[in-house]
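MODEL INPUT / OUTPUT PAIR
PAIR INDEX: 1
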Amino acid sequence: MIVAAGATGGPVVSSAYPEWIATYMLEQNNGYYPLPVSMSNMLAYLFPATAQAYWDEVLEHAFAANQQRLGSAKLGLPTALVALIMFVLDLLCSAGLVLFALANAKLLAALTAVAVVAWARRVAQ
């Protein structure tokens, strides 16, 4: 457990989860997906700098803008259904991370060069 406190006020339990989903992830999850491992967690572990850039540039703004809707959408839903929704969100976020990583200009140039060389070798045979 991580506890954080500001200059004034008492300490609170710190969470790595946004406010709209923290209660579910910390208290109601009961071992349902995505704990202990998810596709997003795995990709963030393997590519931490890219995952942080993706969060900073894309996801943080999207989740912040929709926090109220996301929080109210999960109210009253059974835990198993929330777990299914989390699975779908995890897949979408993971696919987005892959696309975000591939949108890098240097990587696109490298992939294009590899494709051109492969095509040239195929034509030469």
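PAIR INDEX: 2
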Amino acid sequence: MCQPEGQVNEPASQATQGLQLLKAPSLPCHTVLMTFPALGTLDFSLLYDQENNALHCTISKAKGLKPMDHNGLADPYVKLHLLPGASKANKLRTKTLRNTLNPTWNETLTYYGITDEDMIRKTLRISVCDEDKFRHNEFIGETRVPLKKLKPNHTKTFSICLEKQLPVDKTEDKSLEERGRILISLKYSSQKQGLLVGIVRCAHLAAMDANGYSDPYVKTQARPCTKLGHGQLVWELQGPCSHILHPSPSQVHLAFQRYLKPDVDKKSKHKTAVKKKTLNPEFNEEFCYEIKHGDLAKKTLEVTVWDYDIGKSNDFIGGVVLGINAKGERLKHWFDCLKNKDKRIERWHTLTNELPGAALSD
């Protein structure tokens, strides 16, 4: 045990002296305090749900947090941040607990649209902060967990000592920042003789407004493949389609638009309301395109996400194209739908900043 500086030890017996020869030399007390700052400990668990592309972060409790307020207590909350990534959509937080240094949250925060690639290259930053109503919130301590340490579908529990704040590489964040992700479902219905296209939700959308958010909505357009070498398009997707809405209490102000054939007057477009001030909107919208199953191999589906603006042109956030001309997971998703009639196939897709040719304007 460390002795205070200037204190003299009592003489020891010969037996005790013999034992003391075997002990490692003690470090000065001030050295120990510098090595282990009293920021507190944090208990939490992480689970990567591979099938649903979701990362569940359960924040359990903290102990012995550093006092931050004049009353010797703190108003702590926990903030999550996926690195690299500068978007607000990468950040989640718990509720704030008042006047405590030993808070118990037992709160689960979930990131959607997490891929196996994310689990290899991303790191989860977990910060404990003190909320202050009259000043900027204060940082208490943090820890970082490389997601590659997690096994899919296995919960890993952590009990760690909080550390001082580490710098974030802003350059790396900017270079790897994405436009966002979108969860799309496809199903060919034998009963309805049509393709059911579902826009389920988006995640980690790019912020387009000055407030750090967007007012997103989605457009889809079913198109035939281009006849290579002739520079023309042949439109074959005809007939009515039905609009099926599955609302939930949180699903307000959302927008969705689709096209069935070229229409200069935009009479065939359908929009819902815009989802206000969010980077992780839930849509749960489904549309049925009447089309023969054999004709699907000739079609492509363009999906674009937009930010709604009043009084000016809407901003393009990102898009994705599914179909015979697509590549990788986008092509696989399309053919999985063709091969599995009456089975709903859901896939997350990364939005690109390339605007599909058919969606040149809102």
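PAIR 2 NOTE: The first strand starts at residue 41 and ends at 49.
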